[in-house]
Amino acid sequence: MRTMSFDETIEDVLAQTMADDPRIILFGEDVQLFQANLYTQFGGRRIRDTPISEGAFLGAAITAAMAGMRPVVEVSLVDFLGVAMDALLNQASKLETFSGGKWKAPFVLRTTCGGGLGGGGQHQQSLWGWLSHIPGLTVVVPSTPADAGGLLFSALQHDGPVIYMTHKLFTDFWVENLGYLGRKTVDFDLPLAGMRGTVPEKWEPIPFGQAAIKRSGVDLTIISVGVGVHRTLEAAVMLEEEGIDTCVIDLRTVSPMDTAAICEAVSSTGRLLVVDEDYQGFGLSGELAAIILEAGINANYGRVCTEKTIPYSRELEAQTLPNKERIVEGAIELMDRS
Amino acid sequence: MEPDLWYLYRHMFRSRLFEQVVQVFWEQGLISFDMHMGYGEEAIAAGIVCQMVDGDAMALDHRGTPPLLMRGIEPTLILRELMGRPDGLCGGLGGHMHLYSREHLCASSGIVGSSGPAGAGFALAAQYLRPGTLAIAFFGEGAINQGMLLESMNLAVAWQLPLLFVCKDDKWSISTRSASVTGGELVERARGFGLHTVEVDGADVEAVWHSAGEAMKRTRDGGGPTFLHAHCVHLEGHHLGFFLFRVGRDQIKEMIPLLGPLLRSATRRKGGSSRERIRSLTDIATRPRDAVKEQTQKEKDPLYRTRQKLISDRDRLEALEAEINVEIQDVMEVALED
Ligand SMILES: Cc1ncc(C[n+]2csc(CCOP(=O)(O)OP(=O)(O)O)c2C)c(N)n1
């Protein structure tokens, strides 16, 4: 076992797979300096800066992949995908079906998501529910360096489009370059256990659609993803003091979802609380409720999500994003219901 | 007609002083995220905004402070918004990239290129509801490769909208030299859409005033949209605490932690040719230095340039600066009140 940061993990997997597979090239805005180490090792032919033309370069990644390459495309924040949605909504996601299953586009879209840095409602969205809504896309949201590496390793071997989302708070790079920015006068509630951790000596792929049980418990199941997993684990410690024994599940991939693990955990506790940093309406939290209902599981259900546009004010932001106090409150309320 | 240089300088100096307070507050941690300054754009803003009239509208990018101040928005409201206070311009909900003033018809966005469509819609309303008024769209040269901005240029010509496209060209988009990802000449590109075009030194407030004034008159009279290409610098780089500037300003201190990983990448077995690797390393080492050198030239600072023209009347100049100093001190104190 080695210890690595989230950023180092991603770089390590990219460096290894790019060395082994010349079809992989990486492009996006500012990647030559944001990924200076990879740029140094692989040069400007394989690590390319792009114009601010997300619609063009994301769209181009799809057909480049169809024609034999394995592009890794970087869009710095998921919010910026708004300008390039055609590529995902009507092209990448449709290809396999439209070609009668004969053609697939193996590319990885790397992007960051999530809030907690005081960046307001246009730079801190999660949007994995929005993306997973579209059939044909794989959506990955790791919460530890080990998962980040294993899932990226899988993404780079996958035969279709993968959207690989990194929460900004996990990465030293974004916490520094959007948060601290050389200052010592600001504080962030960093999910330290997710920023650095042990990783395998040799990267092995982690299959998509396989959740991780982070903590077992008999009273209540909490399902989350990304930074929410760490907020939930902290809340679980507080709940323990209240005598509530919580099972915590990290989905790791939003699409495909590990339905079997979800159903098993919820049927054994009879209670499901979803902690989702993405928007509450029409998203992951509702989908999980539907999965439980469809499986005929009788369970009490609650959710702690982002209910509205994320406010810029740091104080209001902290109340809007799921935090451990809200999770504890939601859990106790669910326990009191029956 | 000749511009009142004293009047223009008053606005520019006031904006500069106000932003210096913003910088102090940001350094103290009272303002979050990557604060984009208008330092270096003051002459472009003043030369244009000082010629706007009631009913004119502005679509702003992520550097909205100078135009909003010059348009007459209460400075305390802006400062409090940047601090995320409930008594800020937008209740502390928007933040520095999302400043709005309904009564002044000003809207901002942090999505690069979005001021194009926003400007087009404001111009449509001007044409339809308030003949004789117009809209301004501000953006950087990096935005010129964003599809929606180019589409807006065509739309504006097709509908003969009263719209002034203002491209504030500092040659850099974050850490990328815009020329390295942009084809052709910008003015020629705009002409290709059928836009009337002007090119101007954006540090020369009189030149901006003249060319913008002509274009604004033309568009108010129904002569259609104009593309104004104004060259400028950003004295603090892309945003406060910008990593490229931190490295460029203190290469020894800031480069040392990066060197180990860079050299390790440069010597890894598989990857680019040694020529490519050397080229990457040279690029990584020169970009920070070049960015700082190019952006901080005194002769390109519009405040310095304008002040030189007024310095012969030193008493009047100092009196004006002292008066504004008092005002901005007061703004700062009021903004900090409970
Ligand atoms: C659609 C979109 N893509 C990327 C970004 C990230 N981004 C913010 S500012 C910027 C550079 C903009 O450069 P330019 O238009 O030249 O303006 P400048 O910042 O130099 O004034 C980028 C890439 C964004 N905000 N929106």
Q: What can you tell me about this protein's structure?
A:
The complex is a heterodimer of chains A (338) and B (338). Chain A is 41% helix and 21% strand. Chain A has helices at residues 6-20, 31-34, 36-42, 54-66, 85-92, 95-98, 128-132, 145-155, 172-180, 192-195, 227-241, 259-269, 284-294, 314-320, 324-336, and strands at 2-5, 24-28, 47-49, 70-77, 108-113, 138-140, 162-167, 196-199, 212-215, 220-224, 246-250, 253-255, 271-279, 300-306. In chain A, the strands form 3 sheets. Chain A has a 7-stranded mixed sheet, with helices on both faces. In chain A, helix 1 packs parallel to helix 3. Chain A is globular and about 60 Å long. The mean pLDDT of chain A is 98. With 338 residues, chain B is of the alpha/beta class. Chain B folds into 2 domains: 5-235 and 297-335, Thiamin diphosphate (ThDP)-binding fold, Pyr/PP domains (Rossmann fold, 3-Layer(aba) Sandwich), CATH 3.40.50.970; 243-291, no CATH class. In chain B, 51% of the residues lie in helices and 11% in strands. Chain B contains 13 helices and 9 strands. Chain B has helices spanning 5-27, 42-49, 65-70, 75-82, 115-129, 147-158, 186-192, 205-220, 243-249, 251-267, 274-295, 302-310, 314-336, and strands at 57-60, 100-101, 106-108, 135-140, 163-169, 172-173, 176-177, 196-201, 226-231. At the A-B interface, helix 1, helix 2, helix 3, helix 4 and helix 9 of A face helix 9, helix 10 and helix 11 of B. Thiamine diphosphate sits between chains B (62-63, 110-112, 139-143, 170, 172-174, 238) and A (29, 52, 54, 76, 80, 83).
Based on the model shown, name its key terms:
heterodimer; A: alpha/beta; Rossmann fold; seven-stranded mixed β-sheet; five-stranded mixed β-sheet; 15 helices; globular; B: alpha/beta; 11% strand; binds thiamine diphosphate
